[in-house]
Amino acid sequence: MLPKSLRSKINALKLNIGKISEKYFLVEGWHIIEEAIKSGWQPKWVVIEEGYLDKYKETLSILDSKTEVYTGNRKEMRELSSLESPSGILGIFPRKKIKFQEGDFIIIADSIQDPGNLGTIIRVADAVSADGVIALKGTVDPYSHKVIRASMGSIFHISVIKEKDTEKIFSTLKDKDYYIIGTSSHSGTVVYTRLDWKFPLALVLGNEGRGISKEIEKFCEATVRVPILGKAESLNVAIAFGIIAYEAIKDKID
Three-class SS of residue 163? Predict the structure, then answer.
């Protein structure tokens, strides 16, 4: 049986509540756990279902010697997992203090609230070789287990930070001559294919319902949109980002 204290930690991290969630985050599934470890993140605790030790021996072989490994029975693992089909392995990782890193392409999430959307945005950012994602206030915690799962491990490949001070981050971007472009289906004034994309670029993605806030829009040099040609009301923010991101970097693709 797993220690009660460890079960309590996992349950709190599933809900992203309590002080534990300020220091650690939860990862489910061997693939994403391995991606984290190979990218320089080491778990504090790993829990494996009884009978799965041989299946996950490769994952166990790359753990730090300080990682505490526990086994749980099937009933415990199903109770602890948030997945319909539990994978039989959980990892609890310490959060890192990640600072803003300059780069050619930065993504800024303004009040993105759906974990699946933010995770997909991080995955796309990784795919287009963006340098980082900045989650502004009002955005879902990028290190919640649902976001991590939606990112399919991409969150461990690029810099992903939370920033509450909006004025500070945009002042920094302005000082470093970033081309700040907003994206919105509501107020976009330029079709994304008609913009003269420049780098270094900071691309701002707005909230799923209301788009970019007025507070943020004032920092943007332009706001672009993906035109809707059919009867769809709008595009999912992550899908729109993927379309725009590849347009922005098209000259960099061989």
Answer: strand
